[in-house]
Each structure stands twice: as C-alpha cells, then as structure tokens.
Write a structure and sequence with these properties.
It is a single chain. A five-stranded antiparallel beta sheet has the order 2-1-5-4-3. By secondary structure, it is an alpha+beta fold. It has eleven helices and twelve strands. A hairpin with an 8-residue loop joins strand 4 and strand 5. The longest helix has about 55 residues.
C-alpha cells in the first residue's frame, strides 16, 4: 500500500507565494541596481528584509525541523546580486547568526515555535549549526565568485559593445564622407544602401523609393561583362547628364551575395579635358592663321599695287580699267576677310571696365527684339543686379551670336529665357531656348571653328564667343535635349 501524500495546506501555499513574491522583488531590484537606478542603502535594507522574512518563516515552522532554512541561502544569493561578493559574505554571517540564535533560543526554551518542536540534542544542535553555517558560507563564496566572473564578463561585453558602436560610427562617418558614390544591391538587383555622395551625384533626394532596382539608377550596371572592370557610364539625372567612372564588384565569391558599385562623377573632368583640347586646337589654329595671313597679305599687297599702277596708265582700254577695278575691290574684300579671320584666331585682349552687367544684357536683348528671327519668339528675362569687369563690345558680340542662334532654334511660337545670377564669386549668365535641337554627338564640337549644323552658317560665331569668354577668364557650357531645351551657361569672374 502506497503512503498517502499530504496536500499542501492554505498556509503553505500562502507562505510559498510570499517567498516567491519577495524574491521576485529581489531579482527586479538587483537588475535596477545594476542599471544604476537604485542605491546601495536600499539594497542593504532589501537583504536585511530577506533575512528577517527567512528567520520568521523558519521560526514559525519549527526552526530545526523547518523546511524553509533554504531561504537563508536565497538571501545570500540575493545579496551577491545586489551587493557583490563582500555583501554575500556579510549576509551569510548575518544569516548564520540569526539561525544559530533561533536554535539556541529554542534549545534554552526562550522561544516556543507555534508548531512546537521536539527535544534538540547537543549533537543535533551542533549538526544543524555546522551544516547550515557551512552551507551559507560556501554559497556566499560560490555566489561571490560567480558574481565577480559575471561582472568581469559583463564589463568585457560592455567594452566590446562600446568598441562595436565606435566602429559602427566610424564606418558610417567613412561612408558619409566618401567623395565616391557607393551603392549596394542584393542578388535581385534591389538597392540596399546608398551613401551621401551617390545620392548627391545622382540627385536622389526624395525620389529613391524602397525596393528600387539598381538599373533604374545606373542602367546596364549589372551586365556580366562590366563586372570586375572599370568603365564609364553616361546617366541621365534630374540635374542633367552625368559621366560616371564606375567599378562593379560582387560582395561574395561567385557573386551570390549581392553587388557593390563604386563610382565617381567624371562630368567636370571630361569637360575640362574638352576645354583643354579645344584650347589646344584654337592655339594651333591661331598660329596657322597668323602664318597664313602673313603669306596672303604680301601677295595681295603686290597684286593691289600692280592693279593701281594699271589704273593710273593714260589711254588705257576701258574694259581693262573695269577689270582692274574689280580686281581692286575683290582684293580689298579678301584682305578684310583675312583680317577678320586673324581677329577670330587671335582676338585682341579685352579692355575690361566694371559695369552693370544686367544693363548690358537687357540692352542687347532689347536691341535684338526687332530682329526678324525674334519676331514670333517669347522672350523672358530675370536679371540680378551685378557689377562685373568686362569688355562691353566683346561681350555684346558674344550675346548677339548666342541669342540669334537661340531665336532661330526656338522658331515661331518658341521661347527664349535669359537669366543672370551670382554663385561662388562668379556671374552666371544663362541663355535658354525651347528648341533643344543640338544633337548629343555635336555638343563636344559646337565651339570648334568652321563647325556648324545650320545651313549657310560659317561656324565662327560660337567659336568667337568661346574665345572671348575664355579671354575674360570665364567659361562657357552648353547642354541640349528635345525634352529640356538648349542652355548656354556663361561663367564670368566677378573680380577682375
């Protein structure tokens, strides 16, 4: 027959509930103390309270026969959590004193437990004292050791966490300060990261939606033949065409872990290269023009002199005299053409004078309004007041050449806009027309002499404008597309 198992009484259930609640508070308080949200005085009071509760429960349940003597051990463990190893030893000592006091008081019948207690012999008293005190101090030592190890491990983890945070912050700073654009995408080509430089180069502010495909930003960048090889890519952005030098690299061996794209904006570099090439061509042309003009002028002078002698001869044939007059007139025209060509190839240095640039621009635009080319073209002006040192006659020639081209490109019903603004010690003069008829293949050659896409054009107007602007220490740019129109940007230094 199996022995009967006695069910816990209501008092027992209540006791265990109180114990669980108290030590739950101890655990929560320990976490608060570790987090710096509680002080040590309150922690000491908590440990003292735990020892008092343990002593009361041990006394009420028979002291030596009490099943709650383990509560002293829990109090010691709680003290190690709240007050480190030294606090655990002090709690163990206090618990040993409290338990020994209860045993002695019951042995001497100073106290009588409510549930009663049998006779405690000296041997049993010594055993209870020895075993419980030894257990208390062993638990205190073990708990203290574990607490120190836990604290040391926690300290190392905190240091590692701090190092990781510093490393993460440094990585973010490096990515944010990189002058090169950086884009990463997953295996499917969806963009996972874009740094600040890439956003600025591609003008992505506010238009990059989550899950965007990298081909929408850099068309054709994931083609296999461009991987692991540097190449150039022309991309249309909201701020215009950009020439990018990029490198595409797989993030993992075999290309299964996404793709890294690093690129630089080469637009300005390519423009500078084109400017240098154009300047070299113009310099070579100037040398050739000077030599050619010298070689043509001398024969022309001899021919004109001889023709004048023929005219002065008395009794000459009238037909011959008429032919000589034609020869003189055409030689004068040829001489003037040579001088004009020489003036283009080697324009005179500008005579700069500080003047109100917006007034000069407005006067030139108003003068050209009567041009038949501008009769049905809408003209807009937005000119900021600026005082700039320029040669008025030369700059007016530049404006006339570009504006007439703009009127012809816009055509009847088209629009032309002229704006003037300041930026970074420069005067920015923009002449825009709605035509946008310059092919992309011709943009790099548009300032070359004798290059013209217009029937009957000499190809010297824009070349002359370019030479004049460069002689002023400025620069001239052009962009054109059927969607955006054509814009000439003239940059002139504000300081002479």
């Amino acid at each position: 027959m199996q022995p009967m198992v006695e069910e816990p009484s209501r008092v027992d259930t209540l006791s265990f509930s109180v114990i669980g609640l108290v030590y739950l508070f101890t655990l929560v308080y320990g976490l608060m103390l570790r987090g710096g949200r509680a002080d040590r005085v309150a922690a000491v009071m908590q440990v003292v309270g735990d020892l008092l509760i343990a002593s009361v429960l041990v006394f009420l349940t028979g002291v030596g026969d009490s099943p709650f003597t383990f509560l002293y051990l829990l109090a010691v463990i709680g003290a190690s959590m709240l007050l480190d190893g030294r606090g655990a030893l002090l709690a163990a000592g206090a618990g040993a004193i409290a338990y020994a006091s209860l045993l002695v008081a019951v042995k001497l019948q100073w106290l009588e437990p409510p549930l009663g207690v049998g006779d405690v012999s000296r041997q049993r008293l010594a055993f209870l004292l020895g075993s419980n005190v030894l257990a208390l101090f062993l638990i205190a030592a073990l708990a203290g050791y574990l607490t120190r190890q836990l604290s040391a491990t926690g300290g190392r983890l905190s240091e590692r966490e701090a190092d990781l945070k510093k490393l993460d912050h440094l990585q973010r700073q490096i990515l944010a300060c990189m002058p090169s654009g950086l884009i990463t995408c997953d295996e499917g080509g969806r963009v996972t990261f874009v740094n600040r430089a890439a956003s600025a180069i591609l003008s992505l502010e506010g238009r990059l939606s989550p899950g965007s495909h990298v081909d929408a930003l850099l068309p054709g960048v994931l083609e296999r033949e461009v991987r692991q090889r540097r190449r150039e890519l022309t991309v249309q952005t909201p701020s215009g065409l950009r020439i990018l030098g990029l490198t595409v690299t797989a993030l993992e061996a075999g290309g299964g872990g996404g793709t890294l794209v690093v690129f630089q904006d080469l637009t300005e570099l390519r423009r500078i290269e084109e400017d240098l090439k154009r300047a070299d061509r113009l310099a070579a042309l100037g040398t050739l023009a000077a030599q050619l003009a010298h070689e043509i002028r001398n024969p022309l002078a001899s021919m004109r002199g001889s023709a004048q002698l023929l005219v002065q001869e008395p009794g000459g044939d009238p037909t011959s005299a008429k032919l000589v007059e034609i020869l003189l007139r055409e030689s004068d025209r040829l001489s003037k053409l040579v001088e004009d060509f020489l003036r283009f190839a080697r324009p005179p240095p500008p005579v700069k004078q500080a003047l109100e640039l917006e007034v000069l621009v407005a006067e030139t635009v108003d003068m050209l309004r009567v041009d038949p080319l501008a009769s049905q073209v809408g003209v807009e002006m937005a000119l900021a007041p600026m005082r700039v040192p320029v040669d008025a006659d030369q700059l007016r020639q530049v404006l006339i050449n570009i504006l007439r081209n703009a009127f012809q490109a816009a055509g009847p019903g088209g629009r032309v806009r002229v704006t003037l603004e300041a930026a970074d010690e420069l005067a920015l003069l923009r002449i825009w027309d709605s035509g946008g008829r310059i092919p992309a293949t011709d943009l790099s050659r548009i300032f070359e002499p004798f290059f013209s896409t217009r029937e009957g054009g000499t190809g010297l107007g824009l070349s002359t404008a370019y030479s004049i602007v460069r002689a002023h220490g400025g620069n001239i740019r052009v962009s054109s597309s059927p969607q955006e129109g054509t814009e000439f940007l003239i940059q002139l230094p504000v300081q002479g």
